[in-house]
Amino acid sequence: MEVLKIRGGTPLVGEVEIPGSKNAALALLSAVPLSKGQIVLHNVPDISDVHIKLNMLKSFGALVEWREGTLYIDASTMHSWKPEEVDQRPIRTGFYLLGPLLARHGRALLPMPGGCKIGARPVDYHLKGLAMLGAKIELVNGCYQGVAEHLKGAEIYFDFPSAGATQHLMATATLAEGVTTIQNAAIEPEVTALAAFLCAMGARIEGAGTSTITIMGVSQLNGCNFRVPADRMQAGTYLLAGAITRGDIRVTGILPEDQTAMVQKLKEAEITVDEGPDWVRVRGERRPKGIRIRTMPHPGFPTDIQQPMSALLAIAKGSSVIEETIYESRIGHVAELCRMGAQMTIQNRTTIIEGVEQLHYATVEASDLRAGAALILAGLAADGETTIKNIHFIDRGYEYIEQRLTSLGAHIKRTDKRRTPIKDIETHS
Ligand code: EPU
Fold it and tell me: Which among 349, 367, 389 is positioned nearest to 115, based on CA atoms?
């Protein structure tokens, strides 16, 4: 089993270029069956969730090739509407292929979604929306089976602005006949990125990035050339690495306006933050001050940064409160941070943190992706050598994290050598 070993206590200093967004890339890959052309994607992150998704696309008949860091997908050969195996390790967005496969083949079969265990994560909005577009879907033996002879535009409303449901239904509706509107849509940057990608393939979408999206159905989508925007969660994690190690880190290649909630909260905690047109710099000149945080849909404070942020607040002066409003149980990091000397308690969905001056090394386990990121941050600040187990969770969403942290001066290594980047060894399916 691979583990990460981190010798903490070194201020991290330097510049880090942020790779493409996991959640944007996964949304784009879900839309691939809608296209009958050649899709060229730049800046796709080399993370395990992307490789799982690409294997799913291959099993549906797509030709996938990495060339010099660029991903080429030939969607014209996609012939299958069900995966070769239904027991492959599921990821959440595997399920988001359901609508696009229905639009292409009129039928589809996919296993129930997986993903990080951070709450119930139902898919009822997706299923209701697909039904409104004209699909009939049943759950049979752990798989969703769908048929849709003819997809038709509909008026869709969400009780909560779900990022995944907005992406799934917006993509599916591009090939439905007539007009679809999505009300109370998510306005996450990854929704806007997907809309831009779909439009680059010939879709007609208005209002992405607002709470009402209108999709005018077209008869076919073609290929395109598209760059995946930078990952705001990875960017946020590196900013926190600067703050927690009392270092000086500049993250580049990002859209600072996507980081506003995070930047404001860092400033409130008395961390020094500067911004430029495509960068944010954090200087951890002092211990942060305790603050209150409430997670919210975009542009509120992102739930995905709540766990990494709690590692920083664990060493704050005074107490902090983090209220998680999106997921019921995004708390896997708390017990592990407490092993490292943090003083944290949980009341329902709220974490109460009494800041301590120093975290101490321990052997800890990642329970999910962002819990893993929180543990890395804690390890970077702790005295002694921290060991993190279950790092496959971290590999789901952080590209070459130990290489990037090492370049900033961190002492971090895997017990086994990092695999050869899959980009470099993969060829045609
Ligand atoms: N929800 C429902 N029914 C649905 C869909 C969502 O009740 O049919 C609820 C969820 O249970 C949750 C809330 O709506 O309480 C928001 O869920 P959303 O659908 O927005 O989340 P998601 O699309 O499943 C994406 C990211 C998550 C991120 C959330 C919120 C991907 C692959 N995942 O999930 O990312 O936390 O949006 O921003 O895009 C991560 O990267 O660590 C991660 C978990």
Answer: 367
List the one residue out of 415, 25, 280 whose CA is nearest residue 402: 415
Using the predicted structure, report yes or no on whether residue 257 has a pLDDT greater than 80. Answer: yes
Return the closest-CA partner of residue 154 out of 136, 187, 130: 130
Residues 6+ apart with CB under 8 A from 322: 292, 293, 294, 295, 306, 309, 310, 313, 350, 351, 353
Is 227 a pocket residue for ligand 1 (Cβ < 6 Å)? Answer: no
Q: How far apart are CA 401 and CA 397, in angstroms?
A: 9
Q: Report the SS3 class of residue 359.
A: coil
Find, among 215, 201, 87, the residue nearest to 152 by Cα.
215
Phi, psi of 226 (to 5 degrees): -145, 145
DSSP string covering 60-98, please?
A: TT-EEEEETTEEEEEGGG---SS-S-S-SPP-GGGGGGH
Range of lowest pLDDT (309-313, 377-381, 417-421): 417-421
Q: Is the CB of 221 under 6 A from ligand 1?
A: no
Cα–ligand 1 centroid distance for 115 (angstroms):
10
Quote the ligand 1 centre to 121 CA distance (angstroms): 7
- Ligand 1 atom closest to residue 118's alpha carbon, by position in its atom list: 44
Question: What per-residue confidence (pLDDT) applies to 419?
Answer: 54
| C-beta of residue 161 within 8 angstroms of C-beta of residue 211 | yes
pLDDT at 84: 74
Phi, psi for 182 (deg, rounded to 5): -120, 115
Residue 262: name the closest of 285, 231, 235 by CA: 235
State the average pLDDT over residues 323-335: 93
pLDDT tens digits along 179-238: 999 999 999 999 999 999 999 999 999 999 999 999 999 999 999 999 999 999 999 999
Burial class (CB in 10 A: 0-12, 13-18, 19+), 211: middle
CB-ligand 1 contact for 285 (6 Å cutoff): no
Q: Residue 133 carries which side chain, given as an amino acid letter?
A: L
CA distances from 282 to 109, 246, 303 (A): 46, 9, 21
Strand pairing report for 136-140 and 143-147? antiparallel
Angle between helices 232-244 and 303-313 (to 10 degrees): 10
